[in-house]
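Entry type: protein chain
Record version: 2
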Amino acid sequence: MVKHLKLIVDSIKPLHEDYVNFASAHLDQLTKPPGSLGKLEDIARQMAGITGEVMPAFEKKAVIVMAGDHGVCEEGISAFPAEVTPQMVLNFLYGGAAVNVLAKHAGAEVVCVDMGVNADLDHPNLVARKVRKGTRNMAREAAMTPEEAIQAIQAGVDIVDELAGKGYRLFATGEMGIGNTTASAAILCALTGLGADIAVGRGTGIDDAKWLHKQTVVNKALEVNSLHGKQDEGMKLSADYALDVLTKVGGYEIAGLVGVILGAAKNRCPVVVDGFISSAAALVASRLAPLSASYMLASHLSHEQGHKKLLEAVGLEAMLQMDMRLGEGTGAVLCFNLIDAAGKIMKEMATFESAGVSRE
């Protein structure tokens, strides 16, 4: 692992276990049977452990939507043309996308970042971190150079650092990039050894013939880049191998999201992981920095067939199952509401003592 990436990884610390215990003790004093609020109680404990506060407040929150194009679209793996990526970025910037609506409902800001869109974009609210105009075709060569992958990760870390400096304490991952389910499936295959028939989903809604073709393209990308599942288990779990996989079959927006996750953990902030693509970034982040997984919350179980396998590989369990497959961060911002609800339980629910309620 390169030196400055190692410095980021080394800056991530374990959760405050004492505050996890303090939160558990408080939850057990509330007027309810122990554990009866299920995952809301898990969220409350995790928030305490992350922040070192029994009742943390998340008044400022943001979903960071990373955008980038993929050279593998040359292989005809998507139901939509690559031109949709810049068109949707403008839609985010003008507030017309689903993630804008749901973020507004949750009281969150949408931060849209150009990591590698194959177009010249100009908007006052666009965060410009373009590494290159789209990745190379991973079915023929490595999608990125190692330097480009590191640059993209660093951009994600820097954006979180800047937002955390402005008081943002809760983050979500979002993305846009035609072709990025193909890249994410390749990451899943390379890091877990699963076959393309399990990892590859329907993406934007492809038919059976294109789905089989997409599997062939993923297998070709793995073979071309020497990521064909023959690596031993020790190598598959290593940070260096994860970075190599990201470089060869990832995307600029996926690498940027790796940085967002590492940056959130570095700043002791929770990060809500969206769907399939965001979870591919989460898997890479967890291999680079195993402690970062403690700062993640899985939002929903995507309709993409490989998503559950990705979450299992990270060690996460989704809070919601909504049959969603849009991306953008839509599932993640929905879960901001659950985090707020867990916080209100901690702050506003009466204890047995304050309410004069008998425990027996």
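Comment: The domain at 60-339 is CATH 3.40.50.10210 (Rossmann fold).
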